[in-house]
Amino acid sequence: MALKIVKGSIDRMFDKNLQDLVRGIRNHKEDEAKYISTCIDEIKQELKQDNIAVKSNAVCKLTYLQMLGYDVSWAAFNIVEVMSSSKFTYKRIGYLAASQCFHESTDVIMLTTNQIRKDLSSPNQYDTGVALTGLSCFVTPDLARDLANDIMTLMSHTKPYIRKKAVLIMYKVFLKYPESLRPAFPRMKEKLEDPDPGVQSAAVNVICELARRNPKNYLSLAPLFFKLMTSSTNNWVLIKIIKLFGALTPLEPRLGKKLIEPLTNLIHSTSAMSLLYECVNTVIAVLISLSSGMPNHSASIQLCVQKLRILIEDSDQNLKYLGLLAMSKILKTHPKSVQSHKDLILQCLDDKDESIRLRALDLLYGMVSKKNLMEIVKKLMLHVDKAEGTTYRDELLTKIIDICSQSNYQYITNFEWYISILVELTRLEGTRHGHLIASQMLDVAIRVKAIRAFAVAQMATLLDNAHLLTGNTQHSGICEVLYAAAWICGEFSEHLEDPMATLEAMLRPKVATLPGHIQAVYVQNAAKLFSTVLCSQEGAPADSKVAQETSQLLIDRLPVFVQSDNLEVQERASCILQLVKYIQKLQQKDVEVAEEVTALFAGELNPVAPKAQKKVPVPEGLDLDAWINEPPSGSESEDEGRKTKGKAVFAKEESRHTKPRYTEVDEKELAKRREVRKAEQANNPFYIKASPSSQKVYQEAVGVEHIPVVQIDLSVPLKVPGMPMSDQYVKLEEERREKNKADRKKKDKKKRREKGRQRRGDSGPESEEDITPAHMVDIVTEEMPENALPSDDDDKDPNDPHKALNIDLDKPLADSEKKLPVRTHRPDEVLKSPIEDVEGLEVTSEPKKKSGKEKKDKERKKGKEKKKKKHKQEEGEDLMEAGSEEPVQSKVTNDVAAQPPASTPEEAAAVTDDPPASTPDAGSGVAAVVPDSEPEETKSSKHKKKKQKKEKDKKKKHHHHHHSDGVREESVQNGTVEDEEPLPPMSNYALLAENSYIKMVCDIQGNLHDGSQVVVSVIFENKCDSFIKSMEFNVMDSLNSKLQRPEGAGPHDSLTVPFHLPPGISNEARFIFSVQSIVMPQKLKGTLTFIVKTEDSSTHEKLDFKLHFTCTSYLITTPCYSDAYAKLLESGDLKGSSLKLEGINQPFHHLLARICFHHHFSVVERIDSCASMYSRSIQGHHVCLLVKTADQTVSIDAKCDEPGLLRNVLDEIKLTFSQC
Amino acid sequence: MIKAILIFNNHGKPRLSKFYEHYSEDTEQQIIRETFHLVSKRDENVCNFLEGGMLIGGSENKLICRHYATLYFVFCVDSSESELGILDLIQVFVETLDKCFENVCELDLIFHVDKVHNILAEMVMGGMVLETNMNEIITQVDAQNKMEKSEAGIAGAPARAVSAVKNMNLPEMPRNINIGDISIKVPNLLSFK
C-alpha cells in the first residue's frame, strides 16, 4: 500500500504542475491556443484518475486557465471533489477554484451544502476559514438559507480569525437571504464592540454596507457609532463610520449638528489624508442636510473649502482630484463659497490629467451665474479649440451645452449669444454630439419666441453653408444640426429674409447625400417654405411670376427625392410633388391658393414636458391590457388596431392624419374629417386633449402678434474677420450691461438727491438680479397633462438586491423570529415579505437570553397591538424618535472629550424638539430616552412601543414593515385623534451672564455614570466685533459642590476654555462638577476672565455669574416599565407630596412634554388626561409623579424616597409653569 | 465594496483576476482588456483614480490603480470605499507580497498565482476588506503554508525534489521586476494599524 502511494507520487512528479503549465504557455507564444488545448486534454485525463493529488493538481491548473479566459465550468464536479478532500492543501485548491468559477447557476453547488457545513464546523480553524472565504464568492440563496445558522454560530467563535470572517460573510448571506437579517442583527450589533479590533472592523464594515442602502433603518445605531467614532483609533474603522454618518445625516439633521464638532476636531488633528478627506466629505454632507438651519455653519464651510483648496493645490494628483470631487458637493448647496475659487478651478482645466480636467468641468457647471456665464463659456471655447483627443473635446462640448442649458437656461441673458455659440460649435470636426447641438437649437428656437427671427437667420446661413459641415465625413454626427436648421427655417419661415434663397439651398442636389431622416425634414420644410413664399407673393398679385417660379423649382428638384431609397423621404417627396403640381395648375388659372396651402402647416407646436405621457394617470376602471375590440383577424380591423396604437404614440397619429392632406385638396372633405376626428377624440378617453393654447389650430400664424418684439440690429455684420461671432455678443452684452448699470446709477442718484438721504455707495459688485436679460425672454414652459401624477420613482431599479434588505431592525424580535429559520424550503419563486415568512416558519436553534418578564410583556403586547393604522403611524414616529433622541443624550455620557458642536441656545432647543410631535405620545417620545446606547436601547424601544400600543384601541393584528409610504396619508386620517397642535420650541439653556462682549448660557445635566457628578455645558457667544481669547472659567467651590480641575491644579485655579471666539461665533464648553448632597439646590459664584483683542489693542475683561444647580439637574431621564412602576409604588418606601397648579391652559401633552423636557422625566403611562411619570436621580432616588388635569387645574401627586429632594423638584416644576 | 481586483503587466497580460461579482469568462477578459486600455494610456504622474469603464464601471464605480515596475494593480470599487484608503490597501498588498515572496517580482506572480490568491484571501473577502494589518496577514498565510507542508510529509518529498529541479532554471530569467520602489509616494498616508 505504502509502495503504491510512493509509486503514485513518483508518477505524479512527471505530471505537469502549475509551474510547468505556465512555463509551457510562455514557451509556446506562437501557438498558445493549441498548446493550451492539449493541456486541457491532459487535465481531463488527470481528472479521471482516483488519486486526489492528481485531481487537485489538475484543478489548480484549471484555475489558472480560467484566469486566461477559458471556460472551466465543465470541471465543476471535480472541483467539488477536490473541495471535499480531507487534506487542507487540496481543500484550499478546491475552494479557490470554486470561488473563481462557481456562480448561482452552477448546478453542482447544491451538492456542496453538507461539505461546507462540515468544513465550517471543522476543528481546524483554517478549514473553516477557507470554507468561509470560498463561500463568500459563490453563496447562493439556497446556501445562504441552509447555512445561515451555522455562520451565525461562528460569529461567536472563540478565534477572532473565524469571527471576523463569519461577520463579513453575513453581509453576503443577508443579500441572498434577507429573512436572516432581523434574527442575526442583534448579534451583528454585539460584534461592533468585540474585543478584537479585526472583528470590530468587520462588523462596522458590514453594517456600513447595509446602512448605505437603507439608511433609515440604522438611525438608531447612531449613538453606538458616535461612541466608536470618538474612541476608535483604527483609521479604516473611522473612515467607514464617518462615511456611514454621511449617509445618515440627510435623514436626521440633528445628528449632523452633533457630528460637526468631533469631525472638525478630527480634521484639525489627523495626519492621515484619507481620514481628513472623509471627514471633510461628511461635514459637507452634514452641512447640506442642515442647509439653512444653522446660522453659524459658515465657519465649517470655510474650513472645508480651505482644506479642499489645500488638497487641490497639492502637487499630488490624487489629492487634487479628490479635492475637486468634494468641492463639487459643496457647490450644490453653497455655491458662493466655492465661486471665490474660480481661478483655481479654471487653472485645473489646464492640468495634464484628464480626470482632473473633467472634475474641474463638473465644478464649472455649478459655478456659473448670469454674470460670469459668458466669460466661462468663452474660456471653454478656447479649450475646445486646443483640446486634443475627441473624447475630451466631446466632453467639453456637452459641458458647454449643459452649463448653458441648466435649469431652463436660467443663466443665459442673451440668447443671440447662445445661438451663435451653438453655431460655432458646429464647426467642431468629428464630434459625436451633433444631435445634442441640434436639439438645443430646436429647444431654444421653440421655447424662446423672441429669438426666433435671429435663430432663423442663423439657420438659413447654416443651410446655405451646409457643404462646410458635411464636407468630408458624411457619417460624422455634425450633420444632425442640419436637421434642426431645416426644421427651424421651415417652421418659422415667416421670419426669413429671403425664403426663396433658403428654399433653393434646401433643394440642392447635394442634399440627397444626407442621411434619410434629415432629407425627410428637408423635404417637409421645403413645402413649408413654399407656402410662405406663396403667401408673401399673393399680396401683390401683379407679380405672380415669383410664385410660379417657386412652384417650378420644386417640381424640378423634388423628383430626386422621390427616387430616394429612404421610404420616408420618398413618401413625403411624392406627396408634396403632386401637391405642388396641382397648385401650379391652379396658379396658371390665377386662383388664389396661398391660404389653403398655408392651412396645411398652420398651428403652433408646444413643447411637451419629458415623461408627460407617462404621468397621465390611468382613469379608474380602465384596464389597459384588455382588448377594446376583438383582436384583429384580418385587414378589416387594421384601422382599429392602429387607433389603439395611436394612444401610445399620439404624435405619430397626428402626422399620419396630415399626410393624406397633401393629395386631397378638397377642403370640405378635410373639414368634415377633421370634425369627425375631433368628435372622436373628444369621446376617446385615450386621446390626450391639447391644452387650450394649442387648440387655436388653424388660426393663421398664431401668436405672431404676441411675440415680444425684439430689436435685432442686423446691420451688425454677422461675421467679423478674425473674431469668433460669439465674442461679439459678449462684447455687445458687456456694453449693454455697462449702459444699464450707468442708467441705474443715474436713476439711483436722482432718487438719492430727491430724498436727500445719505446711502452707502453701490460700488459693490453687480449682483445677480441687477443683470437684466437682453430682451424679454419668454421661455415657453413645457406642457404637462392636466392631471399628471407627481412621480419620482422613475429611477429606482426594481432589481436592486438591497431592496429586500429594507427591514425595520428596531422593532423587537418576535419570539418566533428569535432564531433563524432553517431547513424549510421556500416555495420556488415566491418571495414573501420577510417577516410574514419568518413568523410562519419553524424554528430550530439556540434560544436567546431573555428575561421572563420581557416575554410576558411581549405576549401581552401581542394581544393588544391591534389598531393597524395608528400602530403604523406610531412606528414611523417611533423610529424617528429613537434614532434622533439618542445622539442628543449620548453627548451627556461622553464627557468633555466629546464636546458637542458649537451651537446657540436656539439651536440647542431645536435639537431637542425638532419634529413637532403631533401625537399624545409626544411626551413619551421626548422623555423615554435611553441615556446609554447599549442593550437597553432595544428594551426601551420595546417598552415604548408597548406603551403606545396599550393606549391604542384594539383592532387588528398585523405587522407592517414598510410603513414609510403610508405614514403621511394616515396622519391625515387620524386627524380626529391627533388634533393637538405641535409643541412650542423649548430650551434648557438658561442665561448665565451677559455683558457687551460675551453672553453665556448654560445647561446642567447629571452624569449617568458617576453618581456624584454633574456636567455643566456652557455656550459662550461673542457679541462684539473683536476677537475674544484666553477665556478662563473659575468657580468658587462650596463644601458640597466642587469644580473638577485637572490633576495638579490648585483648588482655586481657573480652567482655560479650550477655544477662542472670533466675532459673532459661539461655542460650547463643558465643565464637570462633583457634588455630595443632591437634596438641596445650590448656587455657586463664578467668574469668567477673557481678553478682548481689537486690531491695535487688547483689554482684559471679566464677567461674574452665578451657577444655579437645581434639584432637577440631578435627575436623569430613565425609562420605567409600568409593572416595575406599580411595584415601586406598592413597596411603600416612598414618601408622598403633592402640588396643584392653577390656570394652566396649555394642552395636556404640552404639559407632559415640558415636564419631561425641563425636569428629565419620562412618561410611564398615559390615559386620557392622567399620566404617570418617572425619573431617577444620579444617586439612585426614584421620583414618581402622577399628573392629572381638569379645567385648567393640574394636580401632581408625587412620591420619592427622599422627601427633601421631592419638595425641591416640585417647587421647580411649579416655577417652570409659573413662568410660561 | 470592492467589485474586482486585477493585476496585469505592462502588456495587459493578466497576472491575477479576482471578481467579486459573477461575469462570464468572456466578459471577464473584456473587462481586463478594457481596464488595461484605460489604465495603460495614462501618464505616470497623473492621479490614480479613474471613472470606471463601461463594463464593470457604471457611474458609481471607480478604478483605483497603482503601477509598480512592470505590474498594474487595479481595484474596482464602489462609492462606499475610501479612495485613499484603497490606495493604501494596494500598498499593503504589495508589501505583503514582497514579504511573502522575499523581493517579489512579476515572475513570482506568474508562477505562483495560487499563492497570491491565498494571500489576497486574507486581506479581502467577498469584496469586503478583511484585514489591513500586514503582520496579521503574514502570520495567517505562514500558518497555512506550514500546515500544507506538514500534510505533504514523505509522500510529497519526491514531487518537491522534482519541482526544485524544474525550478532550477527559473533564476536564469531575469529577476528584474523587483518592486524596488516600494516606498513609492504615499504622502501623509498613515499606514493602517
Automatic annotation (TrEMBL), chain A:
<dbReference type="InterPro" id="IPR011989">
    <property type="entry name" value="ARM-like"/>
</dbReference>
<dbReference type="GO" id="GO:0006896">
    <property type="term" value="P:Golgi to vacuole transport"/>
</dbReference>
<dbReference type="GO" id="GO:0006623">
    <property type="term" value="P:protein targeting to vacuole"/>
</dbReference>
<dbReference type="GO" id="GO:0098943">
    <property type="term" value="P:neurotransmitter receptor transport, postsynaptic endosome to lysosome"/>
</dbReference>
<dbReference type="GO" id="GO:0010008">
    <property type="term" value="C:endosome membrane"/>
</dbReference>
<feature type="compositionally biased region" description="Basic residues">
    <location>
        <begin position="941"/>
        <end position="963"/>
    </location>
</feature>
<feature type="domain" description="AP-3 complex subunit delta">
    <location>
        <begin position="665"/>
        <end position="810"/>
    </location>
</feature>
<keyword id="KW-0175">Coiled coil</keyword>
<comment type="function">
    <text>Part of the AP-3 complex, an adaptor-related complex which is not clathrin-associated. The complex is associated with the Golgi region as well as more peripheral structures. It facilitates the budding of vesicles from the Golgi membrane and may be directly involved in trafficking to lysosomes. Involved in process of CD8+ T-cell and NK cell degranulation. In concert with the BLOC-1 complex, AP-3 is required to target cargos into vesicles assembled at cell bodies for delivery into neurites and nerve terminals.</text>
</comment>
<dbReference type="InterPro" id="IPR058898">
    <property type="entry name" value="Mu_AP3"/>
</dbReference>
<feature type="compositionally biased region" description="Acidic residues">
    <location>
        <begin position="875"/>
        <end position="884"/>
    </location>
</feature>
<feature type="compositionally biased region" description="Acidic residues">
    <location>
        <begin position="780"/>
        <end position="797"/>
    </location>
</feature>
<dbReference type="InterPro" id="IPR002553">
    <property type="entry name" value="Clathrin/coatomer_adapt-like_N"/>
</dbReference>
<dbReference type="GO" id="GO:0048490">
    <property type="term" value="P:anterograde synaptic vesicle transport"/>
</dbReference>
<dbReference type="Pfam" id="PF01602">
    <property type="entry name" value="Adaptin_N"/>
</dbReference>
<keyword id="KW-0813">Transport</keyword>
<dbReference type="GO" id="GO:0030123">
    <property type="term" value="C:AP-3 adaptor complex"/>
</dbReference>
<keyword id="KW-0653">Protein transport</keyword>
<keyword id="KW-0472">Membrane</keyword>
<dbReference type="GO" id="GO:0043195">
    <property type="term" value="C:terminal bouton"/>
</dbReference>
<feature type="compositionally biased region" description="Basic and acidic residues">
    <location>
        <begin position="730"/>
        <end position="741"/>
    </location>
</feature>
<comment type="similarity">
    <text>Belongs to the adaptor complexes large subunit family.</text>
</comment>
TrEMBL record, chain B:
<protein>
    <submittedName>
        <fullName>AP-3 complex subunit sigma-1</fullName>
    </submittedName>
</protein>
<dbReference type="GO" id="GO:0015031">
    <property type="term" value="P:protein transport"/>
</dbReference>
<dbReference type="InterPro" id="IPR016635">
    <property type="entry name" value="AP_complex_ssu"/>
</dbReference>
<dbReference type="InterPro" id="IPR027155">
    <property type="entry name" value="APS3"/>
</dbReference>
<keyword id="KW-0653">Protein transport</keyword>
<dbReference type="GO" id="GO:0030123">
    <property type="term" value="C:AP-3 adaptor complex"/>
</dbReference>
<dbReference type="InterPro" id="IPR022775">
    <property type="entry name" value="AP_mu_sigma_su"/>
</dbReference>
<dbReference type="GO" id="GO:0012505">
    <property type="term" value="C:endomembrane system"/>
</dbReference>
<dbReference type="GO" id="GO:0006896">
    <property type="term" value="P:Golgi to vacuole transport"/>
</dbReference>
<comment type="function">
    <text>Part of the AP-3 complex, an adaptor-related complex which is not clathrin-associated. The complex is associated with the Golgi region as well as more peripheral structures. It facilitates the budding of vesicles from the Golgi membrane and may be directly involved in trafficking to lysosomes. In concert with the BLOC-1 complex, AP-3 is required to target cargos into vesicles assembled at cell bodies for delivery into neurites and nerve terminals.</text>
</comment>
<keyword id="KW-0472">Membrane</keyword>
<keyword id="KW-0813">Transport</keyword>
<dbReference type="Pfam" id="PF01217">
    <property type="entry name" value="Clat_adaptor_s"/>
</dbReference>
<comment type="similarity">
    <text>Belongs to the adaptor complexes small subunit family.</text>
</comment>
<feature type="domain" description="AP complex mu/sigma subunit">
    <location>
        <begin position="1"/>
        <end position="147"/>
    </location>
</feature>
<dbReference type="InterPro" id="IPR011012">
    <property type="entry name" value="Longin-like_dom_sf"/>
</dbReference>
